[in-house]
Amino acid sequence: DGEFSPTPQLVLDSPERYTSLAGYNPATDHLMWRGPVDLSARYWFRRDGDKLTIRAEVTDDVIHFSTTEAPHAGDVMALVFMVDGRRHFTWVKSADGHAYTRTFSLAELGYVPGKRILFNTQVWDNDDGVVAEGYIGLSTDLNGEKTSEWAELEF
For 6-155, where are the E strands, in sequence order? Predict the structure, then answer.
C-alpha cells in the first residue's frame, strides 16, 4: 500500500504480446515491429487507500503525438478493468510519449474488498501519424470476452 514496487509488476516486450496491423509487404516494411526497442512497456501498480495508481514506462522508437481526439491518430495506451463483469475502459495519452500515470478510484471501478479486479492493457504504436501499425498488450481482447488472458490485480 502506498508505494510503487522497485521492479515492474508487468512487462510487455515479447513477440507473443505484439499484434501487427501493418501487414507484410514492402510498402509497410518500415512499420514492422523490430523488438522491445521499437515498442515495449513496463507497469507498476500502487494502491493507496481507495485509489489505484498505474505507472507505465513505454519504450517507443518514434513518438507521434496526435492533435485530434481520435485515439489511434497517435501513440496511446488503453487501460481496461473488469469487476463482476462490469468493464471500465479509458484511453491514456502521455505528455512525452514515454511516461504514463493515471489514478483511479477503486469505488468507480466497482471494487469492494473480496472482489477480483481483472486488468488488460494495450500500447498502440503510430510512427507515421497516418495509421497505427500495431500494439503490444496482455490480450487482443479489450471487451472482456477472453478474460483468461487478462491479469488479476491483487491488493
Answer: 10-12, 18-20, 39-48, 51-60, 76-83, 86-92, 99-105, 117-125, 134-137, 151-153
* Contact of 79 with 90, CB cutoff 8 Å: yes
CB atoms within 10 A of CB 86: 10
pTM: 0.90
Provide the H-helix boundaries in 13-111. Answer: none
CB 46 within 8 A of CB 36: no
**Rounded to whole angstroms, how far apart are CA atoms 108 and 42?**
25
Q: What is the pLDDT of residues 25-40, one digit of tens each?
A: 787 777 788 899 999 9
AA identity, residue 145: E
Q: Give the mean pLDDT of 13-24.
A: 89
* Spatial separation of the C-alpha atoms in residues 30 and 34, rounded to whole Å: 9
Mean pLDDT of all residues in 80-108 = 91
Mean pLDDT computed over 82-106: 91
Question: How many helices (H) and strands (E) are present in the chain, helices listed first?
Answer: 0, 10
Q: Would you list the DSSP string of 118-133?
A: EEEEEEEE-SSSSS--
